[in-house]
């Protein structure tokens, strides 16, 4: 079988498969927004965005943008029947108050205890917290999508995070270009692998010790 | 009802003293007060404390980041002091690294709740956001019903610049779509709120009381944005892949 890390859209498609009907879903800036490109079929997914959008529609077509309608990544989006708009205080009431069923965020590092780091890289004075710290403590589920290793090939699924934390012990699922992982009290469970990769090969690029799921299977698409 | 409409942005910002704290509304271009900020850039001011979600500087010639690049700012309170994309180093970051101003990084939800507290006369509040992170260092911790929280204080300002779509002459406001974002809470948390209006300024009574987003009692000065090129507008042609 050809050995090939998964592309970003395939990774996000996998997480979006887990969204349940009627869920309120918040997608972080960058890669997580790709989860909105998925046809949800019979499921009604309510996308929520920090700047006050509740239940918005797909990206606007070129030339049809409303200059006052953007998502948290400042992409021009659309309304759909049932969209609501609130101001920032109410938006973070939705977020911190536990009304978001899942947030999918990007990260630099995730640890086996569920900690994650996403706002500040090494040697940098500033950072970008945005709404991530509020989402991380407020959403019912925190899922991460990220590249499995750094550009230099160093692991990002770690025993403990090295970078400044975004939140402590909140991550329950991670999808990378190497597979799908669940974070449990016992540690990180490898659930699904990218085509062509053995669990041993995935362990080689992972600092945390992986528990192999009894139901281990190929990455679902 | 008092008429708060002024003819020009230059007169609206003419008396802002050095050392003021200033909230800038907007989340991306929607709601961003580019015309008021542009007038302040023309006038010049020193030692501002700027409170803003993110110091954008690439949307227009009057983005919040331009105040910084011109050296008008002593301190910034924001949710992003670096680009969310580590590969893109902004001018803001270069100046920050060079120590030209102080930056207080605040989680976005904590920032708006601190503004709300300032607006509502609340002395502080406990939030779970940031517990176990650098944000919690030096802050009072409290366990309430088994969960750990940190104490955060109000975040008021002397001035707020915001943008809305429609107003009446008293300052009752309507925002369009995601233009609303920080603007209602900033209007309430600051002593003086100036607003730039995109579409129309009506007589009191013309706006439906059921559909006022910000009541005029929070608003001090109103200016209609003139057509371009005199007025600064945000258009989707500025769309970028990000």
Radius of gyration of chain A: 17 Å
Q: Please give the radius of gyration of chain B in angstroms.
A: 18 Å
Could you say what the CATH architecture of chain B is?
3-Layer(aba) Sandwich
Uncertain stretches of chain B = none
Query: How much strand content do the residues of chain B show?
Result: 25-35%
* N- to C-terminal distance of chain B: 45 Å
Q: What's the structural domain tally of chain A? A: 1
Task: Give the biggest sheet of chain A.
Answer: 10 strands, mixed
Explain the overall architecture:
By secondary structure, chain A is an alpha/beta fold. Chain A has a single domain (8-218), classed as Glutaconate Coenzyme A-transferase (3-Layer(aba) Sandwich), CATH 3.40.1080. In chain A, 14% of the residues lie in helices and 25% in strands. In chain A, the strands form two sheets. Chain A has a ten-stranded mixed beta sheet. A three-stranded mixed beta sheet of chain A has the order 7-6-9, with no helix packed on it. In chain A, a hairpin with a 2-residue loop joins strand 11 (179-184) and strand 12 (187-193). The mean pLDDT of chain A is 96. Chain B has a single domain, classed as Glutaconate Coenzyme A-transferase, CATH 3.40.1080. In chain B, the strands form two sheets. In chain B, strands 1, 2, 3, 4, 8, 9, 10 and 11 form an eight-stranded mixed beta sheet that branches. Chain B has a three-stranded antiparallel beta sheet with strand order 5-7-6. Chain B is globular and about 50 Å long. The termini of chain B are far apart. Classes of the chains: A alpha/beta (221), B alpha/beta (242). At the A-B interface, helix 2 and helix 3 of A face helix 4, helix 5 and helix 6 of B.
């Amino acid at each position: 079988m050809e050995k090939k890390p998964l592309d970003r859209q395939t990774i996000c498609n996998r997480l979006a498969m887990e969204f349940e009907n009627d869920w309120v879903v918040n997608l972080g800036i960058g890669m997580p927004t790709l989860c909105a490109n998925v046809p949800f079929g019979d499921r009604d997914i309510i996308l929520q965005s920090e700047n006050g959008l509740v239940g918005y529609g797909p990206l606007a077509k070129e030339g049809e943008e409303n200059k006052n309608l953007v998502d948290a990544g400042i992409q021009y989006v659309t309304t759909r029947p049932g969209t609501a708009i609130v101001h920032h205080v109410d938006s973070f009431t939705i977020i911190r108050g536990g009304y978001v069923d899942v947030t999918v965020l990007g990260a630099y590092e995730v640890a086996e205890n569920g900690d994650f780091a996403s706002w500040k890289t090494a040697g940098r004075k500033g950072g970008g917290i945005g709404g991530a710290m509020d989402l991380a403590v407020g959403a019912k589920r925190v899922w991460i999508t990220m590249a499995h290793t750094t550009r230099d090939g160093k692991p990002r699924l770690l025993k403990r995070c090295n970078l400044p934390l975004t939140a402590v012990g909140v991550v329950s699922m991670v999808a990378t270009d190497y597979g799908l992982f669940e974070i449990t009290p016992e540690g990180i469970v490898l659930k699904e692998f990218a085509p062509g990769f053995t669990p041993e090969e995935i362990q080689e690029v992972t600092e945390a010790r992986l528990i192999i799921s009894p139901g281990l299977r190929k990455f679902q698409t | 009802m008092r008429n708060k409409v002024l003819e020009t942005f230059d007169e609206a910002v003419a008396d802002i003293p050095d050392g003021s704290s200033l909230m800038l509304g907007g989340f991306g271009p929607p709601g961003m007060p580019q015309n008021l900020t542009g007038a302040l850039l023309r006038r010049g001011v020193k030692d501002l404390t700027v409170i803003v979600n993110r110091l954008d500087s690439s949307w227009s010639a009057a983005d919040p980041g331009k105040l910084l690049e011109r050296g008008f700012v002593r301190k910034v309170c924001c949710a992003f002091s670096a680009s969310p994309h580590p590969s893109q180093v902004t001018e803001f970051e270069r100046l920050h690294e060079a120590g030209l101003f102080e930056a207080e990084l605040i989680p976005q939800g904590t920032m708006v709740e601190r503004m709300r507290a300032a607006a509502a006369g609340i002395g502080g509040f406990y939030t779970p956001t940031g517990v176990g992170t650098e944000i919690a260092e030096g802050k009072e911790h409290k366990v309430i019903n088994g969960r750990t929280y940190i104490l955060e204080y109000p975040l008021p300002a002397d001035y707020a610049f915001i943008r809305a779509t429609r107003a009446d002459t008293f300052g009752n406001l309507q925002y369009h779509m995601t233009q609303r974002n920080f603007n209602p809470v900033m209007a309430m948390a600051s002593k003086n709120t100036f607003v730039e209006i995109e579409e129309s300024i009506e007589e009191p009574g013309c706006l439906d009381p059921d559909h006022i987003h910000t009541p005029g009692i929070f608003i001090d000065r109103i200016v209609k944005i003139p057509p371009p090129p005199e007025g600064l507008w945000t258009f989707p042609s500025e769309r970028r892949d990000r």
